[in-house]
Design goal:
This protein is mostly beta strands. It contains four helices and ten strands; from the N terminus they run ααβααβββββββββ. The protein has an eight-stranded antiparallel β-barrel with strand order 1-2-3-4-5-8-9-10. The chain starts with a helix and ends with a strand.
Length: 292
Amino acid sequence: MAAVFGSVSAAHAADMPDLPVLRGGFTYGLSKTSHRWDGAYVGVNGGYTADATDFSQSVVGLTNFIFRDSVLQQPTANWSLMNKTNTQSTNFGAFVGRNWQWYDAILGLEGTYSYFNNLSTLTSGTNSLTIVNPPGDAHAANVTDNYDVTLTGTAAAKVKDMITLRGRVGWDGGDFMPYAFMGAAVGRMDVSRSVTSIVDLRQDVTNTIVVGGATLTTTTFGAPQAVPAQSQSQTQRRTNAFAVGWTAGLGVEYCIWDGLFARVEHEYVKFSPVMNTSVTLNNARVGLGYKF
């Protein structure tokens, strides 16, 4: 009986249709197709730039020169004559790079060039202060030296273009690849600054006398006298000055078709000061590239 039923079952199984699920073929339909990001690539991009320029210490180098070897150099060395300013502009450029992929991890090295469309800003400011008996000032014991110092300054900065070398770390998400980057930046800019100082010295004399057992103190206020050596103007300008800095940011790339891809990214750039003027950039970009 076992042989009979076995024969019937074998015949019935032979008559069943050839279903893929019985051969394990159904698992192929559920497999994930992954895009390969390994290789060299080139592309172009464009976007928007927000510029924050710190002019607070821009004229310090000029005032230090005006007040060099004088008792006013130290008290005026850290005057914040002007404020920070903000401006906006458009940017466009190109990029070239190389990706290396290990499973889902992607490491890359990329160089970029960015040109900024009239990314310039300027500011001005003035400050006045009376400096009384500054350190190192020589005067009689009953004399008070009052230096009335007025500074008026202007400064401007224009960022022309920039190149960066960035290391990237990404993740293979199929057609998407989110990534982070960090690297070095070199910017080319025009920077100018000027300052005018007006210094007057007023010497007040205090005398003390005793009259009938009472002590009387009198102060004679002197007339302000100009100090020509520290009353002058200075101007300085640098064209096509190079500023080094660093950059970091986040982005995502999307494979449109074969090697063609699009990207969106945000980049932060901090440059070292040029003539005591510090520039910070925030770049938002979209780009189109091709991976070979």
